[in-house]
Design brief:
The protein is built from eight helices and 14 strands. The protein is α/β, with parallel strands linked by helices and 323 residues long. The strands form two sheets. The protein has a seven-stranded mixed sheet with strand order 3-2-1-4-5-6-7, sandwiched between helices. Strands 8, 9, 10, 11, 12, 13 and 14 form a seven-stranded antiparallel sheet that branches.
C-alpha cells in the first residue's frame, strides 16, 4: 500500500529527494519549507522546493515556526503516514513527530554519529576526512540522535569543495531515501543505534570561520579553503605598505614543500606565475582569489599591477599593524 508522505526541506540538498519521491508509487501530499526570503531590491528569492511542489499540484506550508499549534493542525489535516526531512532548518518538537503513524526520517549528509548538526559536509572536509556519506535515521527530539535506518558512503576527493560534495550527496540520497521509504511501508527496516562515544558536532558555520590562520599546517589550510565554499569562503588580509590592508578571498590552493624559515602568513614567492605563502609547516600555492568587491581571478591576474613582494604578510585580522 502506497504511503502518504510530507516532505520537509529547503534548498538544493533536499530538492533531488523531493523529485525522487514524486517518481515513486507513494503520494507526496504536502511540502513544508522555510518562508520566502527577500533579497536586495526587495526581490524574492526563488525557492526551488516550493516551485517544484506547486508545479506538481502539492500544497505548500511555510511557517515561521513549524511547531506552533496552527502548523501542527495543518500537518494533521494532511493525514500523512511519514514525514521525510532534509535540510529543513527548524528543530521538530515531540508533538510534531507524533503526528505521522510511521514518524519522521531525516536525510543527513554525514556518516552518523559523526558530524551531528547543521554543517556536516563542511566539517568533514575541514577536518580532513577521506570519506563521508548519507545517513537516514528516525528522528527523535534530540539532535540527529535517532536510530539509523540506512547508510551510503562516498569518498571525499582531494579537491572537493563543500558545494561540490553537497551536490554529490544530494544525488546519492535519492535512491537511499526511496529504498528506506519502501522498507518502512513493508515493515522490513533494520534500525541501528548510534554509538554515543563516537559523536562529533558540526554546528552552523559563522563568517569568522572562514578567516585563515596561517600557523595551521598546509594541509589544514587547504581543507579550510575547500570546506568554506560556497559560504562563508576562506579569506585573509594582505598587509602592503603601498595599498594598505586588503581583504582577499582565497578560492583554491595547492600544498607545496617549499622550505622557508619565514613566519606563517609570509609571502615567500610573488612573481608572474605564482603566489606562495608560508604556513605552519610548509607553504601553499594560491591559485585563485577574489579581492573584496571584485571578480574571481587567477593569482597571476591578481598580481598584475600590485606591488606585492616576498616578505609581505597575510593575517587574519584587518586591524593588525602593517609592518
Amino acid at each position: 500500500m502506497a504511503l502518504r508522505l510530507v516532505m520537509m526541506g529547503t534548498g538544493g540538498f533536499a530538492l533531488p529527494t523531493l523529485r525522487g519521491l514524486y517518481d515513486t508509487a507513494h503520494e507526496v501530499v504536502g511540502l513544508v519549507t522555510q518562508p520566502d526570503r527577500t533579497g536586495r531590491g526587495h526581490h524574492r528569492h526563488v525557492n526551488p522546493m516550493k516551485q517544484t511542489a506547486v508545479e506538481r499540484g502539492t500544497e505548500v506550508l511555510q511557517p515561521q515556526n513549524v511547531n506552533e499549534p496552527e502548523s501542527l493542525d495543518h500537518l494533521r489535516n494532511w493525514n500523512a503516514d511519514l514525514f521525510v526531512v532534509a535540510a529543513y532548518g527548524q528543530i521538530l518538537s515531540a508533538d510534531l513527530l507524533s503526528i505521522p503513524r510511521l514518524g519522521a526520517i531525516n536525510v543527513h549528509g554525514s556518516l552518523l554519529p559523526k558530524y551531528r548538526g547543521a554543517a556536516p559536509v563542511q566539517y568533514a572536509i575541514w577536518n580532513g576526512e577521506s570519506e563521508t556519506g548519507i545517513t537516514i535515521f528516525q528522528i527523535e527530539p534530540k539532535l540527529d540522535a535517532g536510530p539509523m535506518l540506512a547508510i551510503e558512503k562516498t569518498p571525499i576527493g582531494p579537491k572537493d569543495t563543500s558545494g561540490e560534495l553537497l551536490e554529490r550527496l544530494a544525488t546519492l540520497a535519492v535512491p537511499l531515501t526511496v529504498r528506506t521509504v519502501d522498507q518502512l511501508e513493508s515493515g522490513t527496516t533494520e534500525a541501528i543505534s548510534q554509538e554515543s562515544a563516537d559523536v562529533t558536532r558540526a554546528p552552523r558555520l559563522k563568517k569568522s570561520d572562514g578567516l585563515i590562520d596561517w600557523s595551521q599546517s598546509s594541509t589544514q589550510v587547504d581543507c579550510q579553503v575547500r570546506a568554506m565554499q560556497p559560504w562563508p569562503r576562506a579569506s585573509t588580509y594582505i598587509q602592503n605598505p603601498k595599498h594598505g590592508t586588503i581583504r582577499l578571498i582565497v578560492l583554491d590552493v595547492d600544498r607545496t614543500d617549499v622550505d622557508s624559515d619565514a613566519d606563517p602568513g609570509t609571502i615567500v614567492a610573488a612573481n608572474a606565475t605564482e603566489l606562495i605563502v608560508k604556513t605552519g609547516d610548509a607553504a601553499v600555492r594560491i591559485n585563485r582569489v577574489q579581492p573584496e568587491g571584485k571578480r574571481p581571478m587567477t593569482a597571476e591576474e591578481f598580481l598584475r599591477g600590485r606591488s606585492l613582494t616576498v616578505g609581505n604578510q597575510l593575517v587574519d585580522d584587518a586591524t593588525a599593524d602593517t609592518p
